Structure formats: C-alpha cells, structure tokens
From TrEMBL:
One of its GO terms (molecular function) is DNA binding. CDD domains: ABC_UvrA_I (cd03270). One of its GO terms (biological process) is DNA repair. It is found in: Cytoplasm. The keyword Transferase does not apply. GO terms for cellular component: cytoplasm. Keywords: ATP-binding, Cytoplasm, DNA damage, DNA excision, DNA repair, DNA-binding, Excision nuclease, Metal-binding, Nucleotide-binding, Repeat, Zinc, Zinc-finger. Its main location: cytoplasm. Residues 1-437, 445-748 form the ABC transporter domain. This is UvrABC system protein A.
Amino acid sequence: MQQEYIRIRGARENNLKNVSLDIPKRQITIFTGVSGSGKSSIVFDTIGAEAQRQLNETFSMFIRNRLPRISQPEADVIEHLSTAIVIDQKRLGGNSRSTMGTITDIYAVLRLLFSRIGQPFVGYSNTFSFNDPSGMCPECMGVGQKIEVDLDRFLDRSKSLNEGAILFPTFGVGTWYWKSYVYSGLLDNDKKLEDYTEDEWQTLLYGKGTFETALDNNVPITAKFEGLIDKFNRLYIQKDAAEMSERTRKNAEQFLKMGTCPACKGARLNAAVLGCRINGLNIAEMSAMEVSALVGIVEKIQDPIAAPMIASLAMRLQHLVDIGLGYLSLDRETATLSGGESQRIKMVKHLNSSLVDIIYIFDEPSIGLHPRDVHRLNELLVKLRDKGNTILVVEHDPDVIRIADHIVDIGPKAGSNGGEVVYQGSYDGLLQADTLTGRFLHKKTTLKDKVRQPTGALSIRNAHIHNLRNISIDIPTGVLTAVTGVAGSGKSSLINKVFLSQHPEAVVIDQSAVGASIRSNPATYTGIMDDIRQLFGKANKVSASLFSFNSKGACPGCQGLGFIFTDLAFLEPIRTICEICNGKRFSEEVLQYTLHGKTITDVLEMTVEQALDFFQRKEVKNKLKAMYDVGLDYLTLGQPLSTLSGGECQRIKLAGELHKSGSIYVMDEPTTGLHLSDTGHLLEIIDRLVDLGNTVVVIEHNTDVIRHADWIIDLGPGGGKDGGRIVFEGTPQEILNAEGSLTGKYLLI
Ligand code: ADP
Ligand code: ADP
Ligand code: ZN
Ligand code: ZN
C-alpha cells in the first residue's frame, strides 16, 4: 500500500523543538520562515539525511564502509521516506573537461547523432568526444587551450630591440639570444616594436632563416634565425620540464599564459571530427551555439532513422530553454556556472529521468531568476510533481510559494526563538495566518521617491568580457545602486568581473563561510572574546589567557573542542561530547572563576541579546549591538561559525562594517536565504551603511530591494547574445516608464 504522508515525530535537530509533521506525498510542499528558523534543519538535516542514511543501509557492508557515515537524525519517528535527491545551489565545479553538455548528458546524445548521420562518417560516437583519444585534438589533448608565451609580459612594445624591448631576461640586451636577433640584419633594431609593419612582426615572432655575421671577435659565423615565439616554445614550452632546472622553469613560467589552442581554435576536437557535419555544422559549432538557437537547428534535421534521437535531443534542449538557461551553450565549462545556474541544470537532468516516487528537495530554486522567469521554474516543479514525485522546497519568493499544494511555516523567529511549526496548510490559509510569513505576504516596499544624491562616481570603461557590448558606465558613490536584468544579461560579468578588477578596493560581502577554524565563533570573530577574557582575568585576579579554550584554560580531555573525534578506520570519525568537561570546553579550574556569577562557559552560551544585557563595557556593547542590529540577536556567543547559514554569514560580515565610512561594498543577491521580513531588515542595514557615507552596489532580482534603490542600472534586454547592453539607468521612479526595460514592469506589480 502506498503511504500518503511522510511522517515525522519529535524532530529535534539543531533548534527544532520536537517538531511533528505529516508531509503529503506526490505534492509540492514549501517550507517558509525567517532565516535561521529551522527550515534546513527539517528538510535537509532531518528528512534528507534520514533518506540518505536509509539508502546507505540497503548497500552491502563492503560499500557501506566506503560511504560517509550518516548518524541518525535527532527524531523519534521518520517514516515512509523514499529515495531523496537534494538539488541545491552547490556549484557544479569540475575540471575543464566538464561542460554543460557533458554534465547533462546532452552532449552524449549529440555525439550519437553525429556518429549516425554526420557527413562524412568518421567513427563511433566516442570519436566525437574530446575526452576520448580518438576524437581529441592532439595539440591540446581536448582541452581547447594551450600554454603559450604571454606577449604582453614578454615584450615592451614602446621600446626598440636596442632599448630592451624583450623583457624576458634570458633574451635581454647584450645576451647571446638578443644578439641573434639584432645581428641578423632582418630587423630595424632602433624601431619601436609598436611601429613594426605586419611583415616585421611576422619575422620577429615566427621568421626563419640563416644569416651570416660577425657575431664575436670579428669571426664570421653562420647562425640560424628563429622567430621569438618558435624559439621560446622550443626552449621552454615543448621541452620536458624534467630537463630544465627549477630556476629556468620558474623564470619561464612568469611569461606563460593559457591561450586558445592554435590547432583546433578551442574546438577541442581533431580535424577529422571537425570535418564531419550535419546540415553544414560540425559538433563543436553546435556546442558553441546558445541552446535557444540550437533547438531550432536540431528540430530542422530530417532523418527518418534518427528521428527518435533528434526528438529526444530537441526535448532536452527545450528543457534548458524552459528553465531560463537558453543563453548558455553546451560547451560552457561547468566550473564557470553560478549557483543558481548549477541548480537549474541539476533540475533539468531529473526532468529527463523516468524514476518516480522520488523525494526532490530544493533549496531556494528561484535564486538568480528575474521575476520574468520565475513562472518557468514553477512549471518545472509542477512537471516533476506530476510525474509522481514528492517535492519539498525551501523558498522565500512569494511567486513560488503561491504554487504550493501544502505549506509548512517554521518560526516564530530564528534560532532558539524558532524551531516550531507555526502554520501548515494551504496558501490561502497562510495569507490569513498570524505568522511573520502570513503578515509579510501582504506587505510591499514602496517605491523610493526621494532618492539620495550621489557624492561622485566610479567609472567603468569599455567593459567587453563575455556578452558585454563595450559598456562604459558610471556607478554613483554614496548611494545604493541596484544592478538588474534577466539571468545571463551580464550583471555579474559587469560587476564581479569588470567593476571589481577596475576598483579593487571594493569589498565583497557574500554568503560564503566565515572563519575557517572549528574553534571560531561569534565572540572570536568580532573580537569581543579578548575583552571577555580580560574582564574575567581582572575580576578574578588571574591571567586573562586562562579564559581561552585555545590555550592554558582548555579542558585537557578535548583540548578545548568540547567533543572528541574517534577515528574508525573506514568510517567517518564519530563525534562524541567530551566526558571530562561535558562539552564545556574549559578546565575545571577555569570554571571556578566567575564574572557577576557567570562562568566563561555560561557567557559563551548566552545569546547576543542576553549578552547585551550582561556586559556594560562600551567596546563589547558596540560590537554586540552591531550583531543585534543585523538581526543576529539569537546567536549564542559560542556557536561554531561553521554551523552558520549563508544568510547568517552575510550578516555577521555586515556587522563588522557598520562603523566604517567611505568604503565600496558589492553584494551579489544579498536576499538569498532571506525571508520577506529579513529583507526589510537587510535594507535597514544597507541604508545605515550608505548613510554612513559608503557606496553599496547590489546585484538583485528582489523587487523590494530594487524599489528601495537610489539608482538602478538595468542590463539586457535578454540573456547571452541578446543581452550585454545597458537598457536603463536612473531612479526607481524613472524605470517605471522606461521603454525596453523588463525590470520596470515588475516593479509595479
Ligand atoms: P533556516 O534553514 O530556516 O535558515 P537552519 O535550519 O539552517 O535555519 O538553522 C536553524 C538554527 O539552527 C539557526 O539558529 C542555526 O544557526 C542553527 N544551526 C544550524 N546548524 C547547526 C549546527 N550544526 N549546530 C548548531 N546550531 C545549528
Ligand atoms: P548575469 O549575472 O546577468 O546572470 P552573466 O554575467 O553571468 O549574467 O553572464 C552574461 C553572459 O556571459 C552569459 O551569456 C553567460 O553565459 C556568459 N558568461 C558568463 N560567465 C562566463 C564564463 N566564465 N565563460 C564564458 N561565458 C560566460
Ligand atoms: Zn586543440
Ligand atoms: Zn573536554
């Protein structure tokens, strides 16, 4: 009998307070709630983890011993699970041989098609693979790139050969190699390289020949002339590294760069494969096209025998277009894809799957999507459900929340103030519910009518990487600028690549992890740990250093970690609470000392809010206040930073900036992971930063943030080759009536 619900009783992972839930199967359930309320603790740490653990149990001991060990989540009952697949925002990564085509398996279908109907016939489908020796370009081994001499570093074009135009020391003025050029009689040694004719360049770089000259001591000798590039290649690039001294190799390395492979021009395949075509296009040309254009090309291929294959290929490509990735090409390396793009690609992979009764778990799939494209995502979620799967989604975007069959709202707030189910039921019911989510679904940020006046401008000149069409634009200082546009329009290329390289002083505030050490926590990160130690030292007339779990005061059993790792040969080490200190991390001696009746452990267990009450010292209060102001009042001073969510990391970084002025901050989708009510909070923090005299640039799709900006730069009109232009710059009021700006339309809704 098929069970209709996933049953959870008494879930207690992280901050969950004995949560019990029945989640309908084969429906879309959306989990809402403020950042830190416990959504991930239910969806990933309880349901996802248990499903994975149960799956692992089905394997033989041999395999199990090789899998990471997952401990049973803290819960009384978790029943009626099926196989779960987590589709998250982790970037796909991968080496240069991993492309969007290979990872989606679409390239494999394309290869098969070429092996069947390509003209002329060159081989089996593996021949069309750049990862296969029979297909790869022999020059670059299928990478499409080759190491070459970096001429910009090698030559100073404003000088002549006699003035030392060759910067590589081994070829410097007076050296043997230098003489082989200046005594050749083939070049004008006093002419600046930038004044060379095309012919002279060819001679210098690639020329060949012999010449006779009196090189030394007036003895005529015959010497070979070999162009600079050829000579450098022969001496350093083609030579086995083992035959070079460490110094020579290091020396030469500074003059190298990766360049397009001259043999295949980046196509990665050998000449025979590239000569094989369908309707005039070879496989590399098809892979380099934007997917939205490739669909049409594939659909036009007429071949009765290959018809099913063509239809399947067209369908898979159409899925990519449907999810808003039509601006990407199959040859795009996966390592260069954003988190949102990676997630959507993983999703497409499963749309082709014929498996049913899978639990799909999504983590904010709307990330990176312009409001225009959110309906595409919704359609795919519905499609996956209608195939007979259970869809669990953590999401904040009201346009996605709306499609839920069932909603689970977690709250009421974050951390220890959260961890309960505050509402479950239909979307319409949520609109009536007296929860933060219910209330905020009715709220709308008003369009800013009184914008700040810029104090100056930071200019970007001739931005042309990727799809950018030679953009020159000024970013106003002292205000909040929102950079908008559909996915693939060029926002990150413009800001993260060009702007950041032209203005390196800008500070990026992102959601990446803070503090690499397992021992760092909010107290150490903000520096108040030092003050706390001093206060304890002074009050007890002992050394302040005693109150550090990194040194003298540490529990001898666990060296201040609070837990012990037990190594189990094949298995993941097991983490158990230290029996000596009971997780308190300090030695017994240290725990005798108190400050206003609290031990150091008591203090580290305080939340930011409680600590604000407890401490009077101004420096401590100021830092705590900054954390309070960014909405981290519920964090305890001792919570390991490694357990913070992306949104929490972002906010703790922001807290550290709230006393500065004159800085430039760049934030890429800062509302990721943020509830509607958190977004209001974030905007208050950003306002504070700007009012302190800082410049803030955000890349955003969130209409609340865009409405609140002082200045909008809208890129587009579309993605990929249809984007890369500035379609609007101005204030929020002005964008409403701007022709050609899609973003303006969505601000009214
Ligand atoms: P959400 O997904 O709603 O943003 P989480 O489930 O990630 O919330 O977190 C709920 C609370 O539990 C937060 O206060 C978070 O800091 C805390 N938390 C998450 N993981 C851990 C952990 N491994 N140890 C301790 N606290 C954690
Ligand atoms: P947005 O940030 O607006 O989503 P991007 O700047 O990421 O847009 O992308 C703009 C265009 O540049 C798209 O066509 C994208 O495929 C392309 N692009 C982005 N990064 C790379 C890269 N590393 N290599 C090749 N093309 C890229
Ligand atoms: Zn090549
Ligand atoms: Zn201990």
